[in-house]
Model the fold of this input.
Amino acid sequence: MNVESARAGASASSAPVPGGRVPAVSNPDAYAEESSSPRALVKDLSFYYGANKALKQLNMPIADRRVTALIGPSGCGKSTFLRCFNRMHDLQPGSRYEGSILLQPENIDLVGREVDPIDVRMRIGMVFQKANPFPVSIAENVNYGLRLRGMRSRAQLSVAVEQALRGAALWDEVKDRLNSTAMALSGGQMQRLCIARALATNPEMILFDEPTSALDPIATAKIEELIAALREQVTVLIVTHNMQQVARISDYTAFMFLGELVEYAATATLFTNPSQKRTEDYITGRYG
Ligand SMILES: Nc1ncnc2c1ncn2[C@@H]1O[C@H](COP(=O)(O)OP(=O)(O)O)[C@@H](O)[C@H]1O
Ligand SMILES: [Mg+2]
Done:
């Protein structure tokens, strides 16, 4: 079965969650609507740093080829949640996952012990607040994941580099200096290079952790345009503190508070008609 027909099969099913249990979300209707085409299902996900329970039984869908925004005050667990998706916590001693993140349509549990974190990271890319290019050439930055995967052919690599840089809207600016150091790029260009690096392995999902908070408005606008374009081909999960950005680029929004998911809804609904007072207080700037 190919991916498309598997997806179609998944959406034909009336059970919103494998196992048929409807998770506790504040707006079950939004969930039911959305879950017709989820890329992943977060089920009773908890996460511990040692004894500190940083995520408390989260349940939400991640809509396929849509942008889902994560919002909430500092320290509420947004980065912790993102890092579960590509197993970034695995290196930290004492960290522990409970529950599951089921990648669809295969139903692979991303936080399951039997799943190899390296494989997960090939399928789920991540872009951080601070652009972190490697101190090598632009081309080698983009190539990195493909080399890890064993791609050796120069011709194949150069096609992949061009494709990823075009995908990250950076090709025209760097095509004449692919072999120059990435460290000479501007902040916004470095961030797009990191996006190209994430795109090169053809991931199905990209996680963005406050990708524009260190950028000026023009560089920010470019990243936002890029995310809007990426959304056609890849599922995006983004943390941002910028409410205008949430409204501009996201389809769905999840509001977190103290490690809990308070509300998940279509972005327009969450902003115009939040079902929880805590959501309203946050989006109207009463705290955070
Ligand atoms: N590496 C870590 N080790 C221990 N505790 C952490 C670590 N990273 C984050 N935390 C704690 O987990 C909670 C959530 O943090 P974080 O996910 O960074 O929040 P946010 O991204 O929403 O600001 C906070 O209480 C924070 O202190
Ligand atoms: Mg954070």
Confidence is low (pLDDT under 50) at residues 1-35. The pocket of adenosine-5'-diphosphate (ligand 1) is lined by residues 49, 52, 54, 72, 74-80, 92 (CB under 6 Å).
